Amino acid sequence: MVSIKKQSGANSVVVSDAVNAEMKGIKLELPKDISLELINDTSEFIKKAIFSVSDAAYSGTMLALCIIFFFLRSLIATIIIGIAIALAIILTFCLMYFADISLNIMSLLGLALSVGMLVDCSIVVIDNIYKYRQRGELNKLILSAILGTQEMMLPIMSATLTSICVFLPMLILRVSWILLVILLGILLSLLSYL
Predict the structure, then answer these.
(1) How do the domains of the chain map onto residue ranges?
(2) Are the C-beta atoms of residues 185 and 171 closer than 8 Å to each other?
(3) Biggest CA pair distance of the chain
(4) Which InterPro entries is this protein grouped with (predicted)?
(5) How far apart are CA 105 and CA 69, in angstroms?
(6) Domain 53-193 is in which class?
(7) Which DSSP helix (H) or strand (E) runs through 87?
(8) What is the dihedral of CA 115, 119, 125, 128, to 10 degrees?
(9) Quick one: how far is CA 145 from the chain centroid?
């Protein structure tokens, strides 16, 4: 029996794929009376867990959009928030790629938390745009959107930067790698929302 363990910081799924590829080559070279079998592969659990977390994040986002539609009663506002969420997630994945942060359970949890914060900020902006529309002073939708967004820009940026400032010192302190990955996911998501 041979046990293979990855180095600290190595990606379990990548290591597992490399070992499985090597095992296929070794099996071809072994005599017929010797067998090579995989007993335990932790990467399968990791793959399933990542799928479960990403599925839960997707379901949570869809539920949030349904709730937004229910309360705002506006398909356009819901679509705008949905597009903002999608763009922010895409930008976050790009930032994670360039920062060499792997996609794992913890970074996905941080991303899910940040999506909630994005939804909060989006609702505040949409509500302010509606206030401009209801006043009747501004008959043009585009002007209402510009003024409503400009008015909320500073409070939203202040709230987001405050959240970043709260999490930032934890990156400097010695914290566990799990917390570090969550924090990096949150910080990159929040930065992409700005």
Answers:
(1) 53-193
(2) no
(3) 86
(4) Acrflvin-R (IPR001036)
(5) 29
(6) mainly alpha
(7) helix 75-98
(8) -170
(9) 27
Provide the pLDDT confidence category of residue 105 given band limits of 50, 70 and 90.
Answer: low
Q: Which of 130, 29, 122 has its CA nearest to residue 80?
A: 122
* pLDDT at site 192: 64
Q: Are 122 and 87 in contact (CB under 8 A)?
A: no
Q: How far apart are the first and last CA of the chain?
A: 53
Q: Hey, what are 25's tokens? A: 């080559």
Distance, CA of 66 to chain centre = 19
- Region 90-113: mean pLDDT is 75
Cβ proximity of 103 and 54 under 8 Å: no
Q: How far apart are CA 192 and CA 74, in angstroms?
A: 25
Query: What pTM did the predictor assign?
Result: 0.62
CA dihedral 185, 186, 192, 194 (to 10 degrees): -170
Q: How many CB atoms lie within 10 A of CB 67?
A: 13
- DSSP 8-state code for residue 33: T
